[in-house]
Amino acid sequence: MSAPHHGASGPNESAVARTTPPLKKLSKISKKLAIKKERLVPMNDLPLDAPPVDCPPVYECHVTMKPLKKHRLSITKRYFGRVTRGLMRLMPEKSAKATNEAIGSEYTVDLTGIAISCDDSKRRLIFKFKKESRDIGPVNKNEYDTFKEMIQKHRNYRQSAYRNKKEDINELITANAYQSNGFSPVIGRPANTEQDIDTAKLREDSRGNTIAELNEKVAKIINDIKVIAIEMKLMRKELKELIRTVQSGKTLPTTESKEEEDDYDSDDSDEKIDASTPNNNQILVDAIQKQKSKIYLSEEIIEKKEEKPERLMESGELEKIQPRKHRDQLPKPSIAGEELGLRQLMAIVARRLPLPISFFEPLTMLQVLCEELRYSGQTLNRAISAYDPLDRIAYVTAFAVSSYSGMVCRKQKPFNPLLGETFDYVSNEGWKYHAEQVSHHPAITAAHAEGLNWEWWQTLISTPKTSWSGVIEATPELPVRVRLGKEDYCWNRVKVIIENASSTAEFRKLKMDGTMNMRCSNGYTSTIIFRKDRQTEIYGTIMDNHGVSVVKLFGYYDRFLQKVNQKDYLFEAIPLPKNANQFYGFSQFACGLNEFLSNDEKLSAPPTDSRFRPDLKALENADTSRAIEAKANLEKLQRARNETIHKRMWFEQRQDLMTNTTLWICNGRYWQAKEKKFKGYSDMLQLFWYVAYLSNLFYTLFSISI
C-alpha cells in the first residue's frame, strides 16, 4: 500500500520544486521595488510659522555629482563643495586629474529654488532641477549625515531670509547676477574667473556703502559714458567729412606739429596738399597712415610713461653704439590651459570652428618660420666659407636640423595669418627675413631670407589631420630651398605629431617622425632619420657624388649635430630659459619676434605686419577677453574679403627647376619699398590699425570700474 502512495505523490512534489525558484525571484524583485519606492524622502521646507533662522556656519566637503539617469551610463564628476548663506558652490577639484576622474564645470546652486530628496540607503541627495535631476553626495559616505544636516540648515536659513526680507547686499548681488545673465537662480552657468573676481570686489565694496553712494557712482558712470559717446560722434563726423572730401577729389589739409612728441594732438596747419600729384587712393592712404602713427605713438606713450626722453647722439657716439637687443621674456606668463573632449575637438575641426584662445601662442606662422633661421650664423655662414663640398653639405644639413630645435617645448598653436599679412626681421648676424600669407584656403605661407652670399626660401603648405585618438599629424608638402653661392640645396620637411591634442598644454607631446633627404646640385646627398619613439635623437649619413657613404651623423635636434667620432659640433643649440614653460615654451629668440625695437621701426613697417595684430598683443599681456574680441573681429573682416581678387605684393609663383615644383618666389621689391616706408603703395591692405583702434576705444569704454 505504501508503494502506490509514494508513486502518486512524486509528481506533485516535483511540480512544487519547479515552481519554487520563480516565486523566489518574484519575491526578491518585489522587495527591491518596495525598497526603491520607499528610498527617496523629500527634504522638508521651513514651516510658514517658523521664527527667523540664524545663519549657519560655512560647510565644506568633497562631493561627487552625476546626472540621475535610469537607462544610461553617466560619468561621476568630483567637486569641492562649499555651502554658505544658502548657496552651494561646486568647484572642480584639481587633485582629480591625478586619479583620472572626470572634471566638470563650476556651478552655484540656490538651495531654496529646487526640490531635494534624500536617499538614505545610498547616502546621497537628489537635486531636482528644471531640466534634469542630479545625484550629489559626499565622497566619504560617513559624512553623509553631516552633509544632509548642513544642506537642510542652509536651505531653511535662505527660505527664512527670503520670507522676512532680510537678505543682505551680498545675497542680492548674487541673485541679480544670475538673473542678469539670463539663467535660473537654481543653477548657474560655468563660472568665469574674471567675472568672479569682479563680483567679489563688488561685494566687498558694496557692504559698506549706502544706496545713495551707489546712486552717485552710477550717475558718474553714466556721465562718463555720455562724454565718450559725444567724442565718438565727433570722430564719426570727421571721418565722414574725410570720405566726402576724398570722393569729391578736393585737397586734404595736413596736420603738422612743432614738436614730435606733441604730434598726436596738434592743430591743422595752413599748408595744403596739391591734388594734382597724388590720386585719391594715395591721399586716403596717407591720411590713414597719419591716424595710424598717432594711435601707435599714443600707445607707446602709455606703455612707457616713466621712460626718459632720448637725447641726440653725437657722431662719435653713433659709431660706438651697439645693436639694440630684443627682449628675452614676454610681458606676462602664459594663460591657464583649457581641456577639450575628443568630440569637441573633432567638431571644431569638422565645422572649422575657432579654437579656445588658450590653445594659441602669441606668434603667427610667419613669425614661427623666422625661428628656423636662428642658427644660420653658425651653419650657413660657415658653409659658405668651407672649401670641401663635404663640409658644406654637412653644415647645410645641420642648418636644416636646427630648424626643429625651438619646437620641443612648444605645445600651443601659432595664429593663422590673415590673407596679405606680412612680417620681416633683420638680424644682427647679417641676414634679413620677410614673409607673406599668399593664400587663406588652403593656408599658404611664402618666406624668403638672404644673408652673406646665401639665400633661403620656402612655401609652406600643411594640412593637419586629426584622429579620434586625439593625435594631430601635419606633413608639409613642398621642399625647402637654399642657394649657397652657386650651389643649390633642397630637402623635405618631416612629419610633426602632436599627441593628446585635446588635453591641456602640459599633457601634450610634440614629436617628429620621418626621413629628411637633402640633395645638392653638385651630386652630394644627406639623409637624417627622425623617429618618434626616440624622443629627439637623430642619426644619418652623407653620401658623395658617386653614391658612397662618407660620413655618419649623430645628435639630438634640440641640442646638437656632429659627425661620428668627432668632437666639434656642426651646430649647437642655445638652452631654453629656465622659466620657458611659464612663457609658452619660448626661446629668447622667439620672445623678441613680436616687438618693435624703436618707434621709427614701427612707423616704417607696413600696415600688414604681424606685430600690429591686437590679438597677439593682448594674449602676450594675458588679456584673454581682449584677445578673443580682437581675434573675432579680424576673422570677421577676413571672411568679408574676396580672395579671388586679392593681389600678392611681394611674392609670385614660379616653377622651381631643381625640385620640379611650383613655389612662391620673392619678387625682390619688399626691402626697396621698406626703405621708402612703403610710400606709393596705395593698394596695400589696412589690416590691423582699424581693429586695434576700435579695440582700444571699446576697452576704454568698458573698463570703467565702480
UniProtKB/TrEMBL annotation:
Residues 308-322 have a biased composition (Basic and acidic residues). Residues 1-22, 251-279, 308-332 are annotated as: Disordered. GO terms for molecular function: sterol binding. SUPFAM superfamilies: Oxysterol-binding protein-like. Residues 258-271 have a biased composition (Acidic residues). GO terms for cellular component: cytosol; perinuclear endoplasmic reticulum; plasma membrane. PANTHER family: OXYSTEROL-BINDING PROTEIN HOMOLOG 3 (PTHR10972:SF203), OXYSTEROL-BINDING PROTEIN-RELATED (PTHR10972). This is Oxysterol-binding protein. It comes from Wuchereria bancrofti.
